[in-house]
Design a protein that fits this description.
Blueprint lengths: L7 H15 L6 E6 L2 E7 L12 H13 L7 E7 L3 H10 L3 E6 L24 E4 L3 H16 L1
Parallel strand pairs: 3-4, 4-5
Antiparallel strand pairs: 1-2, 1-3
Helix pairs in contact: 1-4, 2-3
């Protein structure tokens, strides 16, 4: 357990995950930051839209690109509550995000430190700096509680 508070972007990502859960979506939230300012937020909307690509990361990346008026998000950071899947990791690389911060690891569906390890592939066009485990216990608990409630 850390002695310092969570960085504000992760607090916001966890809030986005809470919103997703309240809407019946898997609780994953994402925030894009540039120069210390939040430029986009997103949470899973795959069921509501319905759109299998409506992951929190994809929605936040799309919103950030629109807000900044460019497809390359160089100098931006993505804060997300769960290790990105292969689709989202690919989008992160294509968007040229500078840094990725994520809370909980996802041994089943993650593709950064697990599975495809997208950023380690020679075909990967861009490799962001990656920082994991920030707010891990909180994010993992959100996911556990969400799925526990659905099993009972």
């Amino acid at each position: 357990m850390t002695a310092w508070p969570l960085p504000q972007p992760m607090v916001l990502a966890l809030e986005q995950a809470r919103i997703a859960a309240s809407e019946g979506e898997v609780p994953i939230g994402a925030v894009v930051v540039k120069d210390g300012e939040v430029v986009a937020t997103g949470h899973n909307l795959t069921r509501r839209l319905p759109d299998p690509t409506a992951h929190a990361e994809i929605l936040a990346i799309r919103q950030a690109a629109q807000a900044l008026g460019q497809e390359r998000l160089e100098g931006c950071e993505l804060w997300v509550t769960l290790e990105p899947c292969a689709m989202c990791a690919g989008a992160i690389a294509h968007a040229r995000l500078a840094r990725l911060y994520y809370a909980a690891s996802d041994p089943k569906g993650g593709a950064v430190e697990h599975g495809a390890r997208v950023f380690e592939q020679p075909q990967c066009l861009h490799r962001p700096e990656v920082y994991s485990g920030i707010g891990e216990a909180l994010a993992a608990n959100q996911l556990r509680e969400f799925f526990r409630a659905r099993r009972t």
